[in-house]
Amino acid sequence: MNDAAKEGMSDQIASETPRRRGPLRRLYDWVLSWADSRYGLTALATISFAESSFFPIPPDVLQIAMSVARPARSFLYAAVSTVASVAGGVAGWAIGWGLWSALAPWFFRYVPGFSTEKFDFVERLYQANAGWAIFSAAFTPIPYKIFTIAAGVCSVPLLTLVISSVLGRGARFFLVAAVMRLFGVRARDFLDRYLEVVTIGLGLLLVGGFLVVGWLAK
Question: What DSSP string describes 187-204?
């Protein structure tokens, strides 16, 4: 067998070998699998709720896929995402409040450099800017879950969380709905191609947020 034939066979084997998918991609595909299910709307609500406190894949992924299949229902999907996400934000607030109430004495006693003075400073800073901070996280790729949990930790009024979340999440999901009505499959293909890049960007934003909080607390 000559070199050209060997090279051609190698290319064929490589093309036929399935690419290994990481856990994030498998989770992403699992979310997408609900788009063609009769339980798609329930899945959208559940994922929107869970993403506001712990789930890593944003509900936009499923909302977009469902909107491609049924464009006329794009704004219904946006409404479901908004309501469920805000409810999940309230759950995130409760998680933050409950965990901090239980763990605060341990943090102040055993974590080096973690003092009540520093925490009080960060808490006052967050409370003074909570409305804009939560709205920004709800609307942009900044991890919304971090801000819902932090709102509970810092005793941000629940009404502030709800109003800011309704405005931010509503604007985001209804913007997605409008884009899907206008661009359809092209918008979905962009997200599918650049999922890893978007996820890395979110991770950098998360790390940057912790660094900023640490700098402010000095």
Answer: HHHHHHHTHHHHHHHHHH
Nearest residue to 130 (alpha-carbon basis) of 175, 168, 83, 81: 168
156 in a structural domain: yes
pLDDT tens by residue, the chain, 218 residues: 555 444 554 455 444 444 556 777 788 788 888 988 889 999 999 999 999 988 888 898 899 889 888 888 999 999 999 999 999 999 999 999 998 888 777 877 776 666 677 777 778 888 888 888 898 888 877 789 989 999 999 989 999 999 999 998 998 899 888 888 877 777 667 656 664 565 456 556 655 665 565 565 55
What span, in angstroms and rounded, lies between the C-alpha atoms of 204 and 24? 16
Task: Enter the pTM of the model.
Answer: 0.73
29 is in which domain, residue-wise? Answer: 21-217
Residue 25 lies in a domain: yes
| Total count of domains within the chain | 1
Domain assignment present for 120: yes
Distance from C-alpha of 216 to C-alpha of 79, rounded to nearest angstrom: 37
Give the residue among 50, 101, 86, 214 at the shortest CA–CA distance from 160.
86
To the nearest 10 degrees (0 to 180), the angle between helices 130-139 and 144-153 is 150
The verdict on residue 119 lying in a domain is yes
